[in-house]
Structures are given as C-alpha cells and as structure tokens.
TrEMBL record:
Protein name: ChsH2 C-terminal OB-fold domain-containing protein
Organism: Collinsella intestinalis
The organism's place on the tree of life at top rank: Bacteria
InterPro entries on file: ChsH2_C (IPR002878), NA-bd_OB-fold (IPR012340), Thioester_dehydratase-like (IPR052513)
Leader sequence segment: none
Alphabetical list of PANTHER family matching this protein: BLR3430 PROTEIN (PTHR34075:SF5)
SUPFAM superfamilies registered for this protein in UniProt: Nucleic acid-binding proteins
Ranges where the ChsH2 C-terminal OB-fold domain occurs: 51-96
Length: 155
C-alpha cells in the first residue's frame, strides 16, 4: 500500500468504538483478521487489507486479577475487573480489560478456563477523559474498548 493512500486507522478504530462498532482489517489474500486494525497482514505478510465490522463478542482465553502495581482506580470505580486475552468470534486474539462482575464469578474463573470451558465476553466501551498531553489542562474525550463477562450481566 502506498503511503499517500494510507487511512488514519487508529482514529477510525476509536471513532467506531465510540459508536459501538468494532472495526478490524481483513486480509484480501488469506482472510485473516487484524484486530485492533493493522494495514498489513501479520498472518501471511500481504500488504492489502479491508475494513470489516466485527461482532464484539468472543471467549476468554486467559484472565488475571491486577496486582497493586497495575491496578487502575478509574477502572475499579466502574466495576471489578481483570486483564484477559479475548478470542473474538471472528478469530483474532488480543488482551483487554475484562469486567468480571461479582467476586463469586472471579473465584474459579482460571480453573474453569484450564478445564476448557468456553466463557463468553462482549465489548463494553467505557468513556475516558484524559489530558491531550501529560500534565497539560486540555483534555480529550474518547472511548476505551474493554470487555465484560456475559455472565456478569446475567448475574
Ligand atoms: Zn493474510
């Protein structure tokens, strides 16, 4: 792909998240999906990919509760959470913040994963307001893509 033809993929991705649309890039050669989007294909090395809207649903691959050093107060204010690898229904795997609901769900989550249980998750974007540059007063509003256990909603 020529440089002058490149799209601002990061902006398009975040604009999508804000609208509840989860955009990836699909390789026009092998069909692999890059998510979060990437202009080239990391599976076969092909240079052409096209936009594809994903379901925003997947299954949990792994899950860890944050330690003191990487616990984020702004996340804890929303709901109990951990960090997890999520395999989207369309195939790509990436790590996200995963809201996990009540402590009774978290207990045994890793054991259930090790036992091979499929634990469903869905996209849960959260609103953020952060400085445009660290330490400066000007702020920007954006949506951070997090996930949530399906069963956290049912509970
Ligand atoms: Zn490919």
């Amino acid at each position: 792909m020529l440089l002058e033809n490149m799209e601002p993929v990061v902006k398009k991705f975040y604009d999508g998240v804000a609208e509840g649309k989860y955009l990836g890039r699909k390789c026009t050669e092998c069909g692999a999906i890059e998510f979060p989007p990437h202009l080239g294909c990391n599976t076969c090395g092909h240079g052409e990919t096209e936009w594809v809207e994903l379901s925003g649903h997947g299954t949990l691959v792994s899950f860890v509760i944050p330690g003191i050093q990487n616990d984020k107060p702004y996340l804890k204010e929303i709901a109990p959470y951990g960090y997890g690898a999520v395999e989207l229904d369309e195939g790509p795997i990436y790590t996200f913040v995963v809201f996990c609901g009540k402590k009774k769900i978290v207990k045994g989550l890793q054991e259930r994963l090790h036992a091979g249980e499929k634990i469903g998750v869905h996209a849960k974007p959260i609103q953020r307001v952060t400085p445009v540059k660290p330490g400066e007063p000007e702020t920007i509003e954006w949506s951070e893509l997090c996930f949530e256990l399906d069963e956290a909603v049912e509970a």
